[in-house]
UniProtKB/TrEMBL annotation, chain A:
Domain spans labelled NodB homology: 90-178
CDD domains listed in its UniProt record: CE4_PuuE_like (cd10979)
InterPro entries: Glyco_hydro/deAcase_b/a-brl (IPR011330), NODB_dom (IPR002509)
Family of this protein: Belongs to the polysaccharide deacetylase family.
One GO BP: carbohydrate metabolic process
Gene Ontology terms, MF aspect: hydrolase activity, acting on carbon-nitrogen (but not peptide) bonds
Protein task: Is involved in generating a small heat-stable compound (Nod), an acylated oligomer of N-acetylglucosamine, that stimulates mitosis in various plant protoplasts.
A Pfam family this chain is assigned to: Polysacc_deac_1
Entry protein name: Chitooligosaccharide deacetylase
Taxonomic lineage of the native organism: Bacteria, Pseudomonadati, Pseudomonadota, Alphaproteobacteria, Sphingomonadales
UniProtKB/TrEMBL annotation, chain B:
Source species of the chain: Sphingopyxis panaciterrulae
Name of protein: Chitooligosaccharide deacetylase
Family label: Belongs to the polysaccharide deacetylase family.
Pfam families reported for this sequence: Polysacc_deac_1
Known role: Is involved in generating a small heat-stable compound (Nod), an acylated oligomer of N-acetylglucosamine, that stimulates mitosis in various plant protoplasts.
GO BP field: carbohydrate metabolic process
Residue span, NodB homology domain: 60-297
InterPro entries recorded: Glyco_hydro/deAcase_b/a-brl (IPR011330), NODB_dom (IPR002509)
CDD domains: CE4_PuuE_like (cd10979)
GO MF terms held by the record: hydrolase activity, acting on carbon-nitrogen (but not peptide) bonds
């Protein structure tokens, strides 16, 4: 047996990255970021607000958290709806109690179906990030580009119509993109996306339709990863966020402002047996000296270091 | 290896009881080495017929960007902690990193780390290669690391742990001294090869950070506790036997902000204990060969 000779060709073996989306850069050698008020750590809460049709689609792939049993999967349909009806309000109350404005990554179907819910979010000054159409709106390179372009437009247009403002940010379902996604988002006027976890500060991407920034919403720190996938306790989750905060705060002394993304899911973190520990974590954060709870747009405004 | 045989014939059986004791320098009981994997993964690699590169259709944004975190952020976080507590690295290197991001390789070189090959990219696998193709990646590895660092690689960890039946014979023929691909012991072992001398140095999957976090789903503090238990046991047993403990790392895992703090406590613990000979892989192989002629155990 032998492999096709091309398997030992490396056409992109060269200085820098193996693609043209962004250049290599070392976080520790960039000009320091200065957050407002001299904050060391920008805490970026992002709640994913999702509507799962009880008729799941596997094209291009089935979203995480989607239906699992034979039709009709009442258990998952309703458990996800629990997050939207109940869990979300627990999370919003927790943030509003400490006076925080946060980001909510929202399926456009949520805005159409539950406009009063979206009005509650917008009325408190929280930011809406576009999060596809509904949980059948997954993106991968197997999705035809025209369908992807239409999906992005539907999401942005619907959210703009219901909320009165066009979203500036985008989060793909499962952070899954096609090769075209950064370009299509730039083309649609999106200022930042949240899908890439390769850095801990905003990074500018280049596309044929112009630049777009990625603000890293680290999947490793999400409630889904720690609680649902890795099956750790909410107390462990809270401790991990505290450990991360302390490390980042220490780094900020030498290297400038740092970011701690808190990616939250209402049907995961908004449960009665978990929310107390999360509220305690928020209280702990507000006892720190140099925290700043920010929205994506605020981080975008302050978090781009000058080009080197 | 004995291709096609039910026992691959990699080494002689040697029971844990009754072996001659290995004595590490300064009378230490356990040789501890840290093996950071410095890797480069391709966004859109060609397909190997026997293994997929990414779980999703390319681009796998989560998989790729998670690993790219290593070369922008977490390498320095991990490396600074290692340097602070006196642990050099023995680097499992995707040698194409020398071309893509030489800054990472140069940082490791300046810290006095040793390099061995982990293939060209961690998205190019050895499965299915013929002998000439496998020789090409070994020769590429030797040439690329020598040009970038001045070092001649002494070891091999197969790219993404993909082997052929002839890999061990070939790396021994090219003069490499150790393999990290065999997990049968807590001491070095002589590997049976057609020519040359090859030593299996204990690496580890069980306490590899990838296993800790993604096979056993440990929290950062649970993983740190696991490493300390592993060390305590091997240091205690090593009084009678002389043991090796490897800490295999991926900076994109251990260098995440919620994990690096608990990990620093592990290095602090081992450095302060006094029983550890903190060394590079090549030094451990040399010390073992010097007292066993390389053919023992």
């Amino acid at each position: 047996m032998s492999l096709d000779p091309s398997y030992l060709d490396y056409p992109r073996r060269r200085r820098g990255m193996d693609h043209d989306l962004y250049p290599w850069s070392n976080l520790f050698e960039r000009p320091p970021i200065a957050w407002p008020g001299g904050a060391a750590v920008a805490v970026w809460p992002v709640i994913s607000l999702e509507w799962f049709p009880i008729t799941p689609s596997d094209t291009p792939f089935r979203a995480p958290g989607h239906m699992q049993t034979a039709y009709p999967d009442y258990r998952h349909y309703t458990a996800r709806e629990y997050g939207t009806r109940v869990g979300l309000y627990r999370l919003l109350d927790a943030f509003e109690r400490i006076g925080a404005r946060i980001s909510v990554a929202c399926n456009s179907a949520i805005a159409e179906r539950y406009p009063e819910l979206v009005a509650d979010i917008v009325a408190k000054g929280h930011e809406i990030i576009a999060h596809s159409t509904d949980m059948n709106g997954t993106i991968a390179s197997t999705l035809p580009v025209e369908e992807e372009r239409a999906l992005i437009a539907t999401s942005l247009d619907t959210l703009e119509r219901v909320t009165g403002a066009r979203p500036r940010g985008w989060l793909s379902i499962a952070r899954s993109q096609s090769f075209a996604t950064p370009r299509l988002l730039a083309e649609a006027g999106v200022a930042y996306m949240c899908d890439w976890s390769h850095d801990e500060l905003p990074v500018r991407f280049q596309t044929d339709a112009g630049p777009i920034v990625n603000i890293p919403l680290n999947h490793e720190l999400s409630d889904r990863q720690i609680l649902t996938i890795q099956q750790q306790s909410v107390d462990s989750y809270a401790q991990q966020m505290q450990d991360a905060y302390r490390w980042l705060e220490h780094e900020a002394n030498s290297y400038g402002g740092r970011m701690l993304p808190l990616h939250l899911t209402p049907y995961i973190m908004g449960l009665p047996y978990r929310i107390d520990a999360f509220e305690t974590l928020l209280a702990w954060i507000t006892q720190q000296d140099r925290y700043w709870i920010a929205t994506g747009t605020e981080i975008l405004r302050h978090g781009m270091s000058a080009p080197r | 290896m004995q291709e096609g045989q039910s026992d691959p014939g990699l080494y002689d059986f040697a029971p844990w009881r009754g072996r001659p004791k290995i004595v590490w320098p300064q009378g230490k009981t356990v040789a501890v080495w840290v093996a950071p994997n410095l890797e480069f993964y391709e966004l859109d690699p060609p397909a190997n017929p026997l293994r997929k590169s990414w779980a999703k259709p390319h681009p796998d944004v989560v998989g790729y960007s998670h690993r790219d975190h290593a070369n922008r952020v977490s390498h320095w976080r991990m490396a600074d902690v290692m340097t602070r507590h006196g642990f050099p690295g023995s680097v499992s290197l995707s040698v194409a990193l020398c071309d893509h991001i030489p800054e990472v390789v140069e940082d490791a070189r300046q810290r006095g780390w040793e390099f061995f090959s982990h293939g060209i990219y961690n998205t190019r696998y050895s499965y299915g290669m013929d002998e000439a193709q496998e020789r090409a990646i070994i020769e590429d590895s030797i040439r690329t690391v020598r040009a970038a660092t001045g070092q001649t690689i002494r070891g091999w960890l197969a790219p993404a742990l993909t082997h052929t039946p002839r890999t061990l014979d070939l790396i021994a023929e090219y003069g490499l001294d150790y393999t990290c691909d065999l997990y049968h012991d807590d001491q070095p072992t002589a590997v049976k090869v057609k020519s040359g001398t090859l030593t299996a140095i204990p690496y580890s999957l069980e306490v590899n950070d990838h296993y800790g976090f993604f096979v056993y789903n440990m929290s950062p503090r649970d993983y740190a506790d696991t490493l300390i238990r592993q060390f305590e046991r091997l240091a205690a047993e090593g009084e009678a036997s002389g043991t090796v403990m490897c800490i295999p790392l991926h900076s994109y895992l251990i260098g995440q902000p919620h994990r690096i703090g608990p990990f620093e406590e592990v290095l602090r613990h081992i450095a302060a204990d006094g029983r550890a000979w903190i060394a590079r892989a090549g030094e451990i192989v040399d010390a073992w060969r010097a007292q066993t002629t390389g053919a023992g155990a």
